[in-house]
Amino acid sequence: MNKWKKWPVCLGMAMLCTVLPGCSGEEKDEGLPAEYSFSDEEKLPALGMVEEKEGTVCTVETDPETETESYVYTGLASGGEAAKEYVNQMMEEYDCAVVDEQGMKQQEPTFTEESGSVILGKNSQDETGMLQLKVEWSKDSCTVTPALVEGITVQDGAQNNLTVDEAVSQLESMTPQQLGLTGDSMAAYQVYAQEGYAMVDDIGCFCINVYTLDGVGSHQIEGTYLVRVDGMGIYRLNRQTNQVEPLQ
Predict the structure, then answer these.
(1) Which of 122-155 are b and which e, b meaning 16 or more Cβ less than 10 Å from the residue's Cβ?
(2) How far apart are CA 115 and CA 113, in angstroms?
(3) Where would you tag: which of 29, 84, 131, 161 has the fewest CB atoms within 10 A of its CB?
(4) Which residues of 51-76 are buried (b: 16+ CB within 10 A; e: fewer)?
């Protein structure tokens, strides 16, 4: 069974950065990090270097298995706005790109949903790996997880990806039987895409709902589908089990 999850950052010098006990085995206070380090030579600016925001706390959490550090910023006025500002800064000033976990360039999300995530990538100096920044946001927080991913580089694949309108049209061109629905024509249904991306086995997908109208004019969801942005597959979501299966 395929796995799926919803995926699809500027704070200030006054923030407090704390290492949690139990994560790295020590607790200490230090200034807000100015940059994230991927190696001795390669670093990228940290979230929070544009404007000062009072009352924000940065906590460094370390995964006990992978020893990967994540920087958790809480107390933000808007996690989505903070993420948007940081992503735009990194793209405009530091040659980063929005990518998937395989390094393929993706469209930038809208950041309008209350929670979500995006991956920024930049090739390492020797072109053998990718400097990766995973940015996750919620209503009032952001988490940034830097990592050096060996063997993957940023690739210009976005021009071959579907747009959200093309993904909707792809479903509308299919028959109800192909989508596991009833009826003779898709004219009885309305198709709408949700904002942002969902991930199926680490591949970006558009999340699209198919509705019918009941007798009083209310919309009723008849099916939820995940259309891969590369156009290479469509999955149907079982909302009760939160699992997806590829359409035959």
Answers:
(1) bbbeeeebbbbbbbbbbebbbbbbbbebeebbbb
(2) 5
(3) 29
(4) eebeebbbbbbbeeeeeebbbbbbeb
Measured CA to CA, the distance from residue 31 to residue 18 in angstroms comes to 9
Report residue 109 CA to chain centroid gap: 8
Tokens, residue 97 = 């790109």
Mean pLDDT of 170-182: 93
Residue 55 has pLDDT above 90, yes or no: no
Q: Are 129 and 135 in contact (CB under 8 A)?
A: no
Q: What confidence tens digit (pLDDT) does each residue in 98-133 have?
A: 998 888 888 888 898 899 999 999 999 999 999 999
Torsion angle, alpha carbons of 190, 194, 197, 200, to 10: -50
Residues 6+ apart with CB under 8 A from 207: 6, 8, 193, 194, 196, 197, 198, 224, 225, 226, 237
Contact 120, 135 (CB under 8 A): yes
Name residue 220's amino acid: Q
